[in-house]
Structure formats: C-alpha cells, structure tokens
Amino acid sequence: MGKPQENPRIYIIGAGFAGRAVAREIQAKAVLGSIVAFLDDDEAKVGKRIDGVPVLGPIRDVVRLFARTPADEAVIAIPSASRELLRELYYLLKGAGFSRIRILPDIAQIVEGDAHLVQAREIDPQDLLGRSPVAIGLKKSIEWLSGRRVMVTGAGGSIGSEISRQLLSAGVERLYLFGHGENSIYQIDRELRALQAGGVGVSTAIVPVIGELKDAPYMASVLKRLKADVVFHAAAYKHVPMMEANTVAAIENNVFGTRNLVDACLASGVKRFVLVSTDKAVEPLCVYGASKFLSERIVMDAQAGAGPGEHYMVVRFGNVLGSRGSILPLFMQQVARGGPVTVTDPRASRFFMTIPEACSLVLKAGGVGSGGESYLLDMGEPVLIKDLAEQVIRFSGFVPNEDIKIEYIGLRPGERLAEKLFSDEESLERTDFPRINRLRRSGGRFELGAALDALRPECYPTEGRPDSYRNRRRLRAALRAYIPTVEELPDEPEY
User: Domains in the chain, start-ordered, CATH in brackets?
Assistant: First the structure.
C-alpha cells in the first residue's frame, strides 16, 4: 500500500455520518489534505453537495473516471459495510490506481455519530476475510463503563490493545494499561494518546503500568493502590508450539498469574472481572489450552469469595483474525517473501472472528454478564485454513499455486485439525444479547485446589522436591492427572 503523501487529495467513500464527520475534520485542519469528493451509491445524495463537497456516484461507475495522481487517497467511511462490499470496494479502488486506501473502523468500534480521521488505518486482509461483524451498537454496550476505573491486562497485545481502544470511547475515568512488555505498553500508550489528540476519548486518564502477574505481592499492592472497578484479563502466553516447548512458563504465567490477579482483585473489591478465554480450553490437547482451562475455573470459583455486587466471569471465543503470532500476519510475510505459504493440513479449520468484533462483544458481555458464569461468543461456521491462505494470496495480487505455492507441513505439537467451542459436559443457552451465549456445565466438580497443588512444585522451588522445579515431564504428568485430554509426549525432555 502507498505511503502518505504531502497534501493528499482525498476521496471519501461513503457520505453517511462517518464520512461527513471525517470531511468536517479535514476541512477544519487543512494540513490533513483536501477533499475532492464523496463517492456514494445513494441516489438521494448523488449530484448534491454536503458541506461544500460534491457527492458523485454510483461508486462503480465514477471511480475509474478520474485521472489518478500520486497524491490521490481513498478513505472508506462505511462502518456498517459487509465483508463482501469491502472486498468489492478494495479491488475497485486498487484497480483504479489509488496510491493509498484507508478504512475507518467498523461499526463495532465507532460510537454512533463519532468518527475521526485519526481512526483510519491502512486496509489489510482481516478487513476483507470472514463473515460480516454484527452491528451491536457500541455506545449502548459501553455505557456501563462510564466513570469507572478500568484495568486491561495484556494491554499491549492484540486483544488487550483493541479493548483499550474501544474503552477510550466509553468515558472511563482512568484506563490502566497493564503489561510486562515495556515496548508493547509504550506503543499502545502512544497510540491511545494520539487518538485522544484526534478527538477520541479525550476525558480519559491513561495510566501505563509495567508489572508481572507472577509477582503475587506486587499484584496485591498495585490493585489495592489503583482501586480499579473493572478488570479485563487478556494477558496470557498464547502461541501453541512455543508453549509446548516452554510448558512451565505457560502454567506459571497463565495459571498462577491468573490466580495472583484474581486474589488481588478479590482483596481490593474489584466489581467486575472478565477473563478472556479461548476455544483451546475445551478438552485441551495442548498445554496452552490446559492453562486456559484452569484459568477459567480459577475465575469461576472466585465468585464464591466475591462480595455483594461483585461479578467474576469468563468470555470464551475462537481464533481472531490478525492477532500477533497468528496465521494471518505469517501468511502476509510468506507472500511478501515469494512463498511458499505454509498450511498444516488441507483439512485443518478454525473458528474466526475479527479482533474488533470480539472485543466489542467482550465489553458487552462484561456489562450484562452475571458472576460465576461463562459466556461463549457466536463464532459462526469454521473456516478452512487453506481457504484463508488462498484469499490472502489473492489480496496480495497473486494466483494461489501458480504465483505463490501453498505447502502442507503437517500438524505441530499440541495442534488439532479442528477446535470445539464447548465440551461434551457443557451446553449452550441463549441470552437476550446477539452472539453472546451462556455456557451451562454438567458433571462433577473439578478439583481445582488439588490440581494447582500438583502443579506448584514444577513452577516454584519446593522444599523436598528439588527435582520437580522446572521439570517439563513432571508438569505434563501432573496436568494429565487432572486433564487427561492433554497430549502425552513420551519423549518430552525433563528440562
């Protein structure tokens, strides 16, 4: 995609509320560029002027009529656009020679009537792939957060950073960006402040917090001091093959880190706690999935120790398009190198949702959910990974298996051909809210305390158990004693 030009000539695709808001902003700040026209399909608008800007259309007929210059840019300002329409517009604008194509966030990210050019970003494959996100009305969904102090753990990650962006529009009093990665927290802190400078969420105090979930005394201290009302727990080690090679780190961070955070939140009176979970926690095969299985139970059990008006809940969903370390950025990198694009198996499939939609539904569920409950986001139908690879190759202007080869490499440790969204011991119950379902569990009670006791010597030095500390083989054996679906690896090294 093209680089920003000085004094760009901007065509705004869509003359609705978002397009008009962006146009007014550009007109007020000439340094942002000059508006050539709105392009729209609405016959009631075509041929008229809005705030002095001509409206031309239909889009398909007029977009090719203009002589392109290097300074010509397009901003797609249709937050409610379907994936099908976005795909058509992208290829239409690309074919017409626009040097740069940007897109405003979808309706799940924009508070009604409030759109800013600073929110526009380069269009990428995740905007064109998968199903169209549901329009849930973010303004109503986030009203419950107004005036609250909110902490997001893992705020520098893909999910945590998007939750943080959407929280800017919620009118929260303070937004605590918690993470152990200095660089990632620095980046999201800068981005949110740039959004504020552009008019988004200007009243929110942004507070970056560097810390370790694994440090129990620190977590107790910082939660008491910050007095957070709401915590969204998105921090976790997530990369399946990486965690299969670093199993102790996965349990130490994801399980005992969650235990430390939950204990600190209970002690400090946090009113709402929302764990972001994954379909890999369902009958888990990999250690990462097992760590989230245990995290879910830590949060569910915490409700028994919660005070009046305090709610601890779980929100589970499948894969998200475009998260760091996921297949979409990997496919883009492989295409940029000329291929091949690597897929584990032609039959492999996953449930996918865009990051913005998932985060909007997490925020919604956090406000309407009840303590001690688990919720599952409606993920639609699973998508074949090979189909996703083919679409990314086409997005990049190539023909699959002609210009760019697809190579099948086999499943890696801890991976399945397909994931389940809920277990055989769980059933779904509809709620009053679109695409948010309640999970009901049957079967016996899981012995969480005993499981944590069995895992602790592998994560922490324990008197009388010197050979257990950091021992991967013993850790897997302890996991399998309580979660028998975890994959058995007879040749796993001890350390």
Answer: 9-123 (3.40.50.720), 138-319+356-378+420-441 (3.40.50.720)
